[in-house]
Write a structure and sequence with these properties.
The chain is of the alpha+beta class and 478 residues long. It is 46% helix and 14% strand. The protein has two domains: 264 residues, no CATH class; 162 residues, no CATH class. The longest helix is centred in the N-terminal third of the chain and has 30 residues. The two termini are 22 Å apart.
Length: 478
């Protein structure tokens, strides 16, 4: 595919055609530069339009697709969240100029989160009820080189900190934050080499110093109750708990959908048999099932169900809420080098891939994690909890809060990448990740400098793309 670079990088590691101008003829060069810039801008906008149309073609309802674009219009960071396939397409076409020899170096591959950004690390409770800070959301998880995650997260640091309402973060400070992330990631890998059990350490209140993350965990523990959580999404109708009937995001199932869902439900119970068999009769009785619309940003358009279960008792206080989300081919396949044949050999469905990815990368994972098949699609199932919280821009009051967040995010990513190597299953990742990755960094002494530069450069690309995206929406081309 033709490589189109919109940004001219003054200090680029690779030379980009069209970014060097003849200043000895000022009367013509300025005009030429403007013409080339306009042409490049138009080409990038056309490319962006095509990429977004292809990535969202699965959304049949134009109203839902328009709602996704509306969310993406809210900010460059939201645009970034909604365009994960574009990031991988830009890796393929050279907009992000990763050297070919890096991509061919398989010993630095592991299970990735696949959509790394500042709101895909969160505080949540594990299956034992313990709150911890860790990487979340594995719908795009698959095996690839670690820097796909680290680079994407580092670019998100620039985007996210642009939107902090209580702190003005300078460009120099943003660069420093991205550098802190990468340095902490490397240090954590070194710690794992020295002590392999390091990768299984949890970032919990007990392991945290008095600081921003610990405070967030404490506030969550004190501020949220399961009763309030159920009260926000359910109500009693004729004495029976159901999802809120007047909430427009909850859509009842049609009769034929209900019948097909029941068939899929029975198979789901089989997929968690070791857990389900320990529960009392009636525990998994479905009290209500609805379609859930308008969830997230990148997830908008995916088919999602909410399921209300009986739980341990007949009363509503211990009802269980499950999210059943459609799974698709991971966005990183847009990069072009991954083998779909190997993917299909390994996994019977996208949902099965998500299940294995969650087990590979996680610790004390959700006991309800399973797979469900209905209407020709595969779905991943998980339990919803009131104790799940992404970090919002308004949470950060001091630069030190952001620094702490970035440091712990780096630790979480490094530990996750290392956990998912051959110690999980050598069939997927047949090597020790931490040792190979640090060796790779030493063999490439400019690695950190390059990644930092590319993360900032791609941040600027996203800002420009966001402006082009606004133009596409305003001109009704999307």
């Amino acid at each position: 595919m033709k490589r189109i670079l919109y940004l001219c990088i003054a200090t680029s590691i690779v030379a980009t055609a069209g970014c060097s101008f003849d200043t000895s003829k000022p009367d013509t060069s300025h005009s030429k530069q403007q013409t080339e810039h306009a042409s490049s801008k138009e080409a990038r906008q056309t490319y962006l339009q095509k990429q977004l149309q292809e990535a969202n073609a699965f959304i049949q309802d134009p109203t839902i697709r328009a709602n996704k674009y509306k969310k993406m219009m809210e900010s460059p960071f939201n645009f970034y969240r909604g365009t994960t396939p574009l990031y991988y397409s830009d890796l393929r076409t050279g907009v992000i100029p990763i050297p070919a020899e890096w991509n061919q170096h398989t010993p630095i591959q592991t299970w990735l989160e696949g959509d790394a950004h500042a709101q895909n690390v969160a505080v949540f409770d594990d299956r034992e009820g313990t709150l911890r800070f860790d990487v979340t959301d594995f719908k795009n998880s698959y095996i690839g080189p670690f820097y796909w995650d680290t680079l994407r997260f580092m670019s998100s640091i620039f985007l996210f900190t642009d939107e902090l309402p209580y702190i003005k973060v300078s460009k120099a400070q943003q660069k420093q934050l991205a550098s802190i992330f990468l340095q902490t990631y490397q240090t954590t890998l070194q710690n794992i080499i020295e002590n392999p059990m390091e990768k299984y350490k949890e970032i919990r209140k007990e392991q945290l110093k008095n600081g921003f993350i610990q405070k967030q965990i404490e506030e969550m523990k004190l501020s949220y109750t399961y009763e309030a959580f159920l009260g926000q999404i359910t109500s009693l109708q004729n004495g029976k708990p159901i999802f809120l009937p007047n909430d427009p995001s909850f859509v009842p199932l049609r009769t034929e959908e209900q019948e097909d869902f029941t068939k899929g439900w029975n198979e789901y119970i089989k997929s968690i048999a070791s857990f389900a068999d320990k529960k009392p009769e009636g525990y998994f009785m479905r009290k209500d099932v609805v379609h859930k619309q308008n969830s997230g940003v990148g997830s908008v358009g995916r088919d999602i169900f909410y399921v209300l279960l009986e739980g341990d008792t007949a009363g509503p206080a211990d009802d269980i809420v499950l999210e059943v989300k459609e799974q698709q081919l991971p966005a990183m396949f847009a990069e072009g080098q991954l083998s779909k044949e190997e993917y299909n050999r390994w996994f019977t469905s996208h949902a099965e891939r998500t299940r294995i990815a969650t087990l590979a990368t996680g610790m004390k994972v959700d006991s309800y994690l399973g797979t469900l098949y209905t209407q020709g699609r595969s779905y991943s199932v998980k339990k919803l909890s009131p104790w799940y919280r992404e970090f919002e821009s308004a949470d950060f009051r001091k630069l030190s809060d952001v620094e702490e967040f970035v440091q712990y995010a780096a630790k979480a990513f490094a530990r996750m990448h290392a956990r998912a190597d051959q110690d999980y299953n050598p069939a997927y990742v047949p090597h020790h990740f931490a040792e190979n990755t640090l060796a790779f960094m030493k063999q490439n002494p400019k690695f950190s400098q390059q990644l930092l530069q590319w993360s900032e450069t791609y941040y600027h690309q996203v800002i420009e793309d966001y402006t082009l995206f606004q133009g596409l929406i305003q001109s009704k081309k999307l």
